[in-house]
Automatic annotation (TrEMBL):
Species: Porphyromonas gulae
Main location, first listed in the record: cytoplasm
Gene3D superfamilies to which the protein is assigned, alphabetical: Probable inorganic polyphosphate/atp-NAD kinase, domain 1, Probable inorganic polyphosphate/atp-NAD kinase, domain 2
Job description of the protein: Involved in the regulation of the intracellular balance of NAD and NADP, and is a key enzyme in the biosynthesis of NADP. Catalyzes specifically the phosphorylation on 2'-hydroxyl of the adenosine moiety of NAD to yield NADP.
Residues that hold NAD(+) according to the record: 73-74, 78, 144-145, 174, 185-190, 209
UniProt subcellular location: Cytoplasm
Cofactor: a divalent metal cation
UniProt xrefs under InterPro entries: ATP-NAD_kinase_N, ATP-NAD_kinase_PpnK-typ_C, NAD/diacylglycerol_kinase_sf, NADK
Keyword annotations from UniProtKB, A to Z: ATP-binding, Cytoplasm, Kinase, NAD, NADP, Nucleotide-binding, Transferase
Pfam family, one: NAD_kinase_C
GO annotation, biological process: NAD+ metabolic process; NADP+ biosynthetic process
GO cellular component terms listed in the entry, alphabetical order: cytoplasm
Protein name: NAD kinase
């Protein structure tokens, strides 16, 4: 019997009936369940629901076969961070708003979950960014993007970018986003970056509020090593990886490249990125 770990949002009580229905379906199938501690507390205290589980988890155990993420894109990114390099397949169930990464709507999840238990699904791989600080620390990983942002609101920062050690440009801006295809519909998109199909092997460098209007997003092959060096009056800057924020001194450079592993996303039905664009971003919709 496949073991399943469940991570979830702690703030979606309005979707309580659908959340309960999915977990009960797994219980009825005799599936060994391991539930994230904070999510279990939400189930018990907010939904008055006490599922039968094999264990409470804070991090993802190695013996898990599948991961189910119940929430929005923020919860999915947090779950992807938990999965790390293990490449355990993850199913995203949307209980949030947009849910660009969480493809299955919560109200239909209990009906589709039988496909997961029967092994009737496909795997879609998504590329990740590997991010290493200049001091040689262990690498971190991001599914959507790495963003270098100014720490103070009063002045810009300068980000000097190098592609395979070839100097590209100095970005005088509020920040610079390096996004994967998955992240091209997130923070980068708000900076007028292009949407990249998930199967494409590219990264996009998108400046945030650049001083010069000539500084435009740039798409590069994902086998490019991107080195970023920062100059700022505050002597520090923010490094944000999928919403996880760190403050670094300006003499710390950042090296970004494609990670050697991928995130494996479970698809319970045929998936069309074009349909996702129409449904999630309202492409072609007549809004009156």
């Amino acid at each position: 019997m496949k073991k399943i770990a469940i991570f979830g949002s702690h703030h979606k009580s309005e979707q309580g009936a659908s959340i309960k229905a999915l977990i009960l379906k797994l219980e009825e199938a005799g599936t060994p369940l391991y539930i994230e501690r904070k999510f279990l507390s939400f189930l018990e205290q907010d939904l008055d629901f006490h599922p039968a589980i094999c264990g409470v988890i804070d991090t993802l155990p190695e013996h898990i076969d599948y991961v189910i993420c119940m929430g929005g894109d923020g919860t999915f990114l947090r779950t992807a961070h938990q999965i790390g390099v293990s490449q355990i397949p993850v199913l995203g169930v949307n209980t949030g708003r947009l849910g660009f990464l969480t493809d299955v709507d919560c109200h239909e999840a209990s009906e589709l979950i039988t496909r997961l238990l029967d092994g009737d699904f496909t795997i879609e791989t998504r590329s990740l960014l590997e991010v290493t600080e200049g001091n040689g620390s262990s690498p971190s990983y991001a599914l959507n993007e790495a963003a270098i942002l100014k720490r103070e609101t009063g002045s810009m920062i300068r980000v000097n970018a190098y592609l395979n050690d070839d100097y590209l440009a100095a970005y005088d801006a509020d920040g610079l986003v390096v996004a994967t295809p998955s992240g091209s519909t997130a923070y980068s998109l708000s900076g007028n970056g292009p949407i990249i199909m998930p199967a494409c092997r590219n990264f996009v460098l998108t400046p945030i509020a650049p001083h010069s209007l000539n500084m435009r997003p740039l798409v590069v092959p994902d086998d490019t090593a991107i080195r970023l060096e920062v100059d700022s009056r505050s002597r520090n800057y923010l490094l944000v990886l999928d919403g996880r924020t760190r403050t670094l001194p300006c003499d710390t450079s950042i090296l970004l490249k494609r990670a050697p592993h991928t995130l494996r996303m479970i698809r319970l039905r045929p998936h069309s990125f074009a349909e996702t664009l129409r449904r999630k971003l309202m492409w072609g919709a007549a809004v009156r």
